[in-house]
Specification:
Distance between the termini: 40 Å
Strand content: 15-25%
Domain Glutaredoxin: 43-95
InterPro entries: GLR_AS, Glutaredoxin, Thioredoxin-like_sf
Bound molecules: glutathione
Pfam family, one: Glutaredoxin
Radius of gyration: 15 Å
Largest sheet: 4 strands, mixed
Keywords: Signal
CATH architecture: 3-Layer(aba) Sandwich
Strand order of the largest sheet: 2-1-3-4
Signal peptide: 1-25
Length: 121
């Protein structure tokens, strides 16, 4: 079972790499503005999770520089996700707000919709 999951994971990564979306190119001022908005965001994810791949492809398509945190292999990141986010499920988008509060958003489709709305994509 572990081997089948490993093979499927590699296949997902290969297909993703072969059909990688084209990243949008912005002028440097526009990219800097969007980078400032995404600097407070990070995404908890697994490298071979298909739902995480779906979000990562959107990040690439829209040239969004959002830090990726490995909630599978990094025990500290995994514990943080469960303790603060409430669930061990990925993908999860974390946003550290200026007032010190932290917003956790699960569900790949909701994350994509949220990014499009917040960043006017
Ligand atoms: N409906 C969710 C499904 C996410 C999901 O099932 N993620 C799996 C990984 S592919 C997960 O976090 N499983 C929990 C675990 O492995 O502990 C979405 O679209 O984001």
């Amino acid at each position: 079972m572990k081997l089948i999951r490993w093979i499927l994971g590699r296949l997902i990564l290969i297909v993703d790499a072969l059909a990688s979306p084209k990243a949008i190119a912005r002028d440097s001022a526009a990219q800097m503005e969007i980078d400032q908005m995404t600097a407070s965001m990070s995404m908890y994810q697994f490298s071979t999770c298909p739902f995480c791949v779906k979000v990562r492809r959107e990040l690439k398509r829209h040239s969004l520089n959002i830090e990726l945190r490995d909630a599978k292999n990094d025990a500290e990141v995994k514990a943080e996700l469960v303790r603060e986010g409430g669930r061990h499920m990925v993908p999860c988008l974390r946003t550290d707000k200026p007032d010190g509060t932290v917003h956790w958003l699960y569900e790949s489709s909701d994350i994509i919709a949220h990014l499009k709305k917040e960043l006017s994509l």
